[in-house]
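Module 6 notes. Inverse folding takes a fixed backbone as the condition and produces residue identities as the prediction. Think of it as a translation problem where the source language is geometry and the target language is the twenty amino acids. Below is one complete input and output pair. Work through it position by position during the lab.
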């Protein structure tokens, strides 16, 4: 097991050399994932591990992929997407142009889900989806629009449960064991690295979606990210969080009203 002191040294290396600041991530979860990687890659000592992190730029990509959590699927929590479809998108549709930010987008399944919702609502042509993550590796996967064919049965079931209007397979082309989603969906997406810990607001949005990311942050970092989102949201716009995340007890709670049980808040001040 890697000691807490060694974890501190590794986090300091990451921050000083690469600019990744993980100091405010949940320490228990972070320590567990770093220990898993240390064991998986069969390092003989902590010094060898640190040397690899410091000197091998190819390895740092693997390190970031392993210690950040990238578990997602299309139309996950179908009731959430049904709420977006029936209550939120009709309001957003009154804007001349719609800007949506998927913060911590991972491999992009939720971004493509949103693009499909917008297309079926007749709004994709006047929308722009900003998809960001700290991990450049998962962004490459997201930008490719290629996903395993084996996942499509589950994704199709999620899509139908969310109120999908089309044959889900009409949105992609299958080839061997993979599928590629239609380029007209990707045309409205912008993928970019963004660090919620250290980077600032970069636009004004009508909807920010950040689901199941904040559960890995400590309270101080959660508060910092909430302030970032608040700075980035236009008045009367929406913030969507994961099922175990909440604005309650945050410093910006008084500026928002929860609009439904699916963890969607509207900025009212």
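Target side of the pair, the amino acids:
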């Amino acid at each position: 097991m890697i000691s807490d002191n060694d974890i501190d040294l590794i986090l300091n290396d990451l921050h000083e050399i690469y600019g990744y600041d993980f100091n405010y991530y949940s320490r228990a979860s972070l320590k567990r994932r770093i220990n898993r990687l240390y064991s998986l890659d069969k390092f003989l000592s902590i010094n060898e591990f640190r040397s690899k992190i410091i000197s091998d730029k190819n390895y740092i990509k693997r390190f970031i992929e392993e210690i950040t959590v990238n578990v997602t699927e299309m139309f996950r929590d179908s009731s959430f997407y049904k709420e977006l479809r029936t209550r939120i998108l009709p309001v957003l549709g009154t804007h001349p142009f719609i800007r949506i930010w998927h913060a911590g987008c991972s491999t992009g399944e939720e971004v493509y889900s949103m693009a499909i919702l917008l297309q079926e609502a007749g709004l994709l042509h006047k929308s722009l989806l900003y998809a960001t993550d700290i991990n450049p590796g998962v962004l490459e996967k997201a930008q490719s629009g290629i996903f395993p064919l084996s996942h499509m049965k589950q994704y199709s079931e999620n899509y139908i449960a969310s109120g999908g209007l089309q044959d889900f397979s009409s949105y992609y082309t299958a080839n061997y064991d993979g599928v590629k989603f239609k380029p007209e969906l990707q045309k409205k997406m912008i993928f970019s690295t963004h660090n919620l810990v250290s980077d600032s607001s970069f636009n004004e949005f009508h909807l920010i979606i950040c689901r199941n990311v904040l559960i890995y942050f400590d309270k101080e970092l959660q508060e910092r990210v909430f302030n970032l989102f608040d700075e980035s949201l236009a008045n009367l716009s929406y913030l969507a969080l994961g099922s175990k995340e909440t604005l309650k007890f945050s410093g910006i709670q008084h500026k928002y009203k929860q609009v439904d049980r699916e963890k969607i808040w509207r900025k009212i001040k």
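Reference fact for the lab report: Strands lie at 98-103, 127-133, 146-148, 172-175, 178-181, 189-193, 205-210, 233-241, 256-258, 264-267.
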